[in-house]
Amino acid sequence: MSVKEIFETMEYGPAPESAGDALAWITDQGARFGHFIDGAFTAPSEGFESRNPATGEVLAELTQASQADVDSAVAAARRAQPGWAALGGPGRARYLYALARLMQKHARLLAVLETLDNGKPIRESRDIDIPLAQRHFYYHAGMAQLMEEELPGRVAHGVCGQIVPWNFPLLMLAWKIAPALAMGNTVVLKPAEWTSLTALCFADLCRQAGLPAGVVNIVTGDGAVGERIVAAEVDKIAFTGSTEVGRRIRTATAGRGIALTLELGGKSPYVVFEDADLDSAVEGLVDAIWFNQGQVCCAGSRLLVQEGISESFLARLRARMDKLRLGDPLDKCIDVGAIVDPVQKDRIAALVEGAGGEVYRADCPVPEGCFYPPTLISGLSPADPLMQEEIFGPVLVASTFRTPAEAIALANDTRYGLAASVWSENINTALDVAPKLEAGVIWVNGTNMFDAAAGFGGLRESGFGREGGWEGLMAYTRPAETSAPLVPRAAPQGDAVEPQAVDRTAKLYIGGKQVRPDGGYARNVHDAQGRLVGQAPIANRKDVRNAVEAARGAAGWSAATAHLRAQVLYYVGENLAARREEFAARLDRMSGEATGAAEVDAAVDRLFTYAAWADKFDGQVRSVPLRGVALAMRAPCGVIGALCPEEAPLLGFVSVMAPAIAMGNRVVLVASEPHPLAATDFYQVLETSDVPGGVVNILTGSHAELAPVLAAHMDVEAVWSFSSADLSGVIEREAAGNLKRSWVNDGRARDWHAAPGRAFLDAATEVKTVWIPYGA
Amino acid sequence: MTLTTSQGSTGLQPVPQTELPRNPGMELDMGWVRAARANRSAIERRAATLPGRRSVKKAHQAAWLARAISCIDLTTLAGDDTPGRVARLCAKARQPVRADLLDAIGLPGLTVGAVCVYHDMIAPAVAALQGTGIPVAAVSTGFPAGLSPFHLRLAEIGESVQAGAAEIDIVISRRKVLTGDWQGLYDEMRAFRAACGEAHVKAILATGELGTLQNVARASLVCMMAGADFIKTSTGKESVNATLPVSLVMLRAIRDYHERTGIHVGYKPAGGISKAKDAVTYLALVKEELGDRWLRPDLFRFGASSLLGDIERQLEHHVTGAYSASWRHAMG
C-alpha cells in the first residue's frame, strides 16, 4: 500500500520484531539440545521437536530425559549443594546478581526466543515476562545477601526438583530458581516440553556467569520426566501447573518427608461494582483474560458485574474486544498471539462448544492456524460448568450480583483460590470486599500485577506456598535443627480398678457442647501404673463431620478483633492457672512422673505467649514498584484439624490450639491418644473462658482412624499432625483431595517445652497479598 | 466559514468526508456528570502501556505522520507576534513539508489543519491564508486565564468571528470546576457557543489546573452538553499540558457522549507534544478509543508549534533512508 492510501485508511500495518538473532542463537547451538547437567550440555539424543505455535515451524530438536539423565542431574545437584550452601549468602548473591545482569544484557534475545517458542505477543515477553524474571534475580540476590542476618536458624532444603509450565517459561523458571539458589539449594528444573528454549538459553547464561557446576541442572522432556524428578531423591518439589497434576504430585510425595509447594489452576473472579470506573475496568479485563491468550493461572476469567450496570458494561466490553488485534506474536502491534499448541486450542474450542449463555466472539480478524478469538460468554449462572472449570484460554465467562455480600459469596463459590480483582471507586466497598475474597492475591482496581517483593500463590485447590517476598523464602528453607525420631507411645494398659468418689464422664466437645460419641463406645484409660482412671469416648467419622461443621459455623471468630482473641486466650490461661493443682495431679497420674505442675505452668505460659502474639503477628507493606501499597496480610487458614501429640498431653494440646485460635482459626483437635483426659478436662476451662462454641472442638479416639477422615475432609483448610503414630504419609495422601495444607512431623520428635518460635504462627496463617494502587 | 469548506488545489485539504452535524448540546444532566469516574492508577497504566502495544513502521509511519500534519493547529501565541511572523507561520501552514518530500510520499499539497493565533493576528493570518482553505483559529475569552469580565470575553468572541476566525478556542473558568459550579460552567459554555455563531468552538479545559482526572471527566461532559464542538486539553501555558492519561479521560468522555447522543465531538491535545513518536501515540490512542472516524482534522487536532519540525525530519528519513537535520527544513 502506498503512503497516500494508508493516509486514508490509517491502518497499523505490520511492525515485526526480527527473529534473526534468536534463530541464529538456536542455529549456533546446532538446533539440537541435550540437557544441562553438572555445568555442561549433554549430547543431544532422542526426543521431540519444539515448534513455533504461530507458524508450526520446527525451531529445534530437544532431548527427552531418561531415568539416567534425571539421576545424573540429581546426583550433580547433590554433589554441588554443600559447597553452594557453604559459599554463604553474600557469595551466592554475586552469582544471582550476575545472572540478573546477564538476563538484562540478553533481554531481547530471551524475549524473542520466548515469543517464538510460546506464541505470546512480543510486547508481553519484552515488557513483562523478561523484566519480571530479571527482577526476581535482583530481588533474590538481595535475599541471599541478607539471609544469614535475617533468617537465623534456617537452612536450605538441599536439592530441589522444579517443574514449570509453558505459559510463562522463563518467568516461572526465575520464580523457582532465584529463591532456591539464594537460600543455598541446588536445583534440577524441567521446563515444559512445548517451551524449553529459554530455559536452555538460561543454562547458557549460568555457564557464562561461572555458576559452579551442578548448582543449576536443566532436563527437558514431557510429563514422564516430571514424574521421574518427583520420584527422585530430592528434598523438595516445587511445581507450577494444573491442579490435576498437582494432586498427583501431592499423592506421589506423601509420606516421603520432603517439602512441597504447588502453584496450580484458578478461576479467578473479577468483581465490578456499579461505582467503578467502568472504562478502566473494561481495560483491566484486557489485561486479565486477554493477557497471554488467557493462558494464565491467575487470569480474571470469571466476571461478576453488579446487575444494574451489567448491560452497559458488557456493551463496552464487546466494543473493546472488537479492537483487539490477533496475529503474528512477533508483531509489536499485536494484542493476542497464538495458542501454545493445537492441543490446547482444540481443548478450548471443545469447552466453549458446549457452553450455555450468550457467546460473543470478538469481531476482529482471526488468522489461520493456532489462534482462538477473544470470547465472552455472558448470562451464565454459578451452576454452569464454565463458571467452575478453568478454560485456560481467551474466554471470559460472566454473571451478575446484587450486593457486596452476594458478590463475595459468588466470588468465593469455587474450588480455586488463586487471585481476584475488585473494582470500585468507593474505598469502603473496595477495602471491605478485597480481603474477604478467598484468594492468595487480590488486586483492587487492577489486575495481573506482579513483583518479586510481593508473594504470589493460592488458597484451596490453587495450591500452597508462596513465591516472592519474605514468605516465599519459607518454601526454600527449613529449620536448621533436626530432631530425634519420635518413639510411638502406646496407651498404658492394666486391669487394676479402684472406686472413685464420684464417677466422672469425659465427653467429646463439639460446638461448645459436651456430647456423647456418635458410635456410643468408650475406651478405658489407665494411668502409668495400669490403674483405671476413667473412660474416654471413641470418636468416629461422624463425630469428625459434626466437629468440622461446628468449626465451620463459628466463622465469627475469624472476624473478631485480634484484641478480643487475645483477651479470650489470656482468660483461658487465667482459668487454667486457677486449676493448676488439679491438672498437675491428673498429668502426674497419667505419666507416673512428677512433671505435671511444670507442664501446667508451661501451658499457661504458652497461652500467654499466643495471647501476646494475637495482635502482633502483623502483615507487612511491601515495596512494590507502584504508587500504592501491596499489603501482605496474615489471614487465618480457616478450619484446622490437628492430631495432638501423645507426649505432653496438656502442653502439646495447648501448643497446637493456642496459635491456631490466636490467628483466628477454628480447630478440631484430636487429643493425645494414650492420655486423652487432660484434653477432656480442658473443655471445662474453655467453657469458663468465653471461648465461643465451635472455635475449639475436641475429639478423643484413635489417631489412625480419625487422621484420614480429617485429612480427606473437603471443608477443612489445613491438617496438622504431631501424633507419634505413623500417619504423615496417610495425611499427606488424603490431603491431596482438596489440596489442603498439611503440616506433619514425619515421625520426628518436638520438644514441647522449648519456645516454639514462629513456626506455628506461620502454619496458622495464609499470606494474602492485596494490591491497592491509588491516585487522587 | 466551516471546517468543511473547500479546497486547496490538491483536494487533500480538507480530506473528503461526510460532513457531520455540529454538536447542538443538550440540557445539563447532573446525574450523568456526577456518575463520571476516573481511576487515576488504572488510567495511567493504560496510558503507559499503549506506546508498547501500538507501533507503526515504514510506509505506515510516514502516512501516519502525514496524517498528523493534516491535524496540526500550527500555533503562535506569543506577546511578540507580528504580522510578519504570522505570515511566515502561514506560509509554513500552506507548505508544511518540503515539496520534494511530499511528492516522494505522494501527498503534494498536504497542509496543516489550521493556524491558531491571538485575536490581533487574525487579520494577517486570514490574509496570508487566502485561497488555501486553511481555517484560522483564534484563542479567546481572556486566554489563557479566562479571568477578564464576562461581557468582554463574550465580546472578544464576537470580534474574532467578525475578523474572520473560523474556529474559536475558548478557555473555561477553572474556578467553576474547582468549586463544583457545574451549572455555572454549563451556562458560561452555552453563552460562548452562542457567541461563536457559525464558527466552531473548542473548549480549553486547562486540565493541568483542574486537580483531578475526575474533574477532567466531568468538565468534558459539561462542556459537551453545553455545545462544544471540540474539547481541548490546555492553553499551552499551564505547567502541565497535554498528557496521555488526561487524553484518555477526555476521549472516553467523548465516546460516552457519542454513544448517548450520536454526536461526534472533536478532541485537541495541546502543549507538550513535540515528537513525531508522540504524535503517532496520540493518533493510536484516538484510533483505539474512538475509532478511525476521529482521525480526521474535523474531529482531531494537535495544538503544537514544534511538532512539525520533528515530523519533517522523520519524513525525510523515510524518503532518503538517512537521518535528517533541522536546517534542511524551512522555518515557520
From TrEMBL, chain A:
Top-rank lineage group of the source organism: Bacteria
InterPro entries the record matches: Ald_DH/histidinol_DH, Ald_DH_C, Ald_DH_CS_GLU, Ald_DH_N, Aldehyde_DH, Aldehyde_DH_dom
Keyword Oxidoreductase: yes
Pfam families reported for this sequence: Aldedh (PF00171)
SUPFAM superfamilies assigned to the protein according to its UniProt record, in alphabetical order: ALDH-like
Keywords, in A-Z order: Oxidoreductase
Domain Aldehyde dehydrogenase span(s) in chain numbering: 46-478, 523-744
Gene3D superfamilies: Aldehyde Dehydrogenase, Chain A, domain 1, Aldehyde Dehydrogenase, Chain A, domain 2
GO MF annotation, one: oxidoreductase activity, acting on the aldehyde or oxo group of donors, NAD or NADP as acceptor
Keyword Nucleotidyltransferase: no
Active-site residues per Swiss-Prot or TrEMBL entry: E263
Similarity field: Belongs to the aldehyde dehydrogenase family.
Protein name (record): Aldehyde dehydrogenase
Organism of this sequence: Pseudoponticoccus marisrubri
